[in-house]
Amino acid sequence: MSAQQRDLYDVLGVQRSASPDELKKAFRKLAMEYHPDRNQAPDAAERFKEVNHAYEVLSDPNKRTAYDRYGHSAVDGSGAGQGFEGFGGGFEGFGDIFDAFFGGASRGGRRRRGPARGADLRYNLRISFEEAAFGTEKEIEFNRPERCERCAGKGAEPGTELITCPDCSGAGEIRRAQQSIFGQFVNVATCGRCQGEGRIVENPCTQCRGSGREKKARRISVKIPGGIDDGAQIRLTGEGEAGSRGGEYGSLYVAVSVAAHAKFERVEDHILLEQPVNLAQAALGARITIPTLDGDMEFEVPAGTQSGEEFVIRNKGVPHLRGGGRGDMVVRVHAVVPEELTDAQRALLEQLAETMGTPVLPKGKSKGLFERLRDAVAGG
Fold first, then answer.
1. How far apart are alpha carbons 244 and 51 in whole angstroms?
2. Rounded CA gap, 182 and 199, in Å?
C-alpha cells in the first residue's frame, strides 16, 4: 500500500488528536528506525520516505487541516508524489532536518572538539557535633590531575606544536559518502586518531607523556559554616580535575558527615537533651546543672515534674545556617526509680506510701518473675 493510500496518522502510529510534540516524538523514533544508513532492510527506504511524507504534512498546521478535512487529495500536490524533493531534492535536503532532530553535523561542518571541563571530585570530611554547630576551618589534602606545567596542558614537548591530523585533515571527523538511488548518504564519525580534536601530538611532553595533565597532591583550607548538617556538601569551584585540551578545572565537592554527640540529639536546628532526675527531685523540684553547646548552665526542675515532660530553653540550639538566630534546646526530664534502697530510704518511702493510702510490699516480700507469672495464671 502506498503512502498516498495509508492514513498518515497510522503511518506515524499516533492518534488523530496527537499534539505537535507527540508527532515529533513518533517521527523521530520511526526516522531513526528506518533511516537507510541504519536499516539495510529492502523496504527501509520506502518506509523512511513514507514516514517523512506523513510528518511533512501533519507537522504543517495548514496541511494538516486540509488533510483532516479532505484527505489525501488535498495534499497530493505537495506530498507523496514529490517525496524528498519537497525538502530540496534527494536525501541531501532531508539531511539538514535529520541533523536538527538527531544532533548530526550539517553538510560541510566540522566537529573539532574544543576545550573540555575537568571532572568533579568528592572529598569525605568528618567533623564533630560542635564544629558543625558553630563552624570551623579544616585543612584537607587530596590528589588530582593538574595541568602539566612543562607543556601548559598542550601535551606537546615545549618548542613543538600540535600538527594537523593527517587522517581527518583537521576536521576532527571522518566523512564517508555512499551513493544510492535516493541520493547521497554521508556517514560522519569522530576521527579515531585525534579523537575529534583535529590535531595530534607528534612530540609528546616527556613530563606528562602527551596527556597534558599530571597527578599532584593538593592541600587547601575549607571553611565549614556554622549550622551545617550531616550529609551536606560544600562546592569548591575550580578545585576538581584539570580539563583536557586546556579546559577549565572541575569542582571539588566536600561531603560533610557529623559525628554523633554523647548527650545531644539534633533535630533540624534544635537539640534534645535527655536529663535524668531522681524521684525526690521530680516530686519536690530541684536546681541542677545541665550541659549546653555553650557550656554548663543551671536548670530548675519544677516540683511535680512528670517523667518524660519536656522543657524548652530558647536560643540554645544550633545556629541557623542561613540567617541570624539559633534553634532551641529541649530538655526531656526522666524520673529514675532506684533499683536498690537503703533501710532509711525504704522507711521514708513507706511513710510516704502510707500517707498516700497506697499499699506496698513488705521488705523481703518482693516477688520474683516466676512467682508473679504463677499468681497471674492462678488468678492470685
1. 41
2. 35
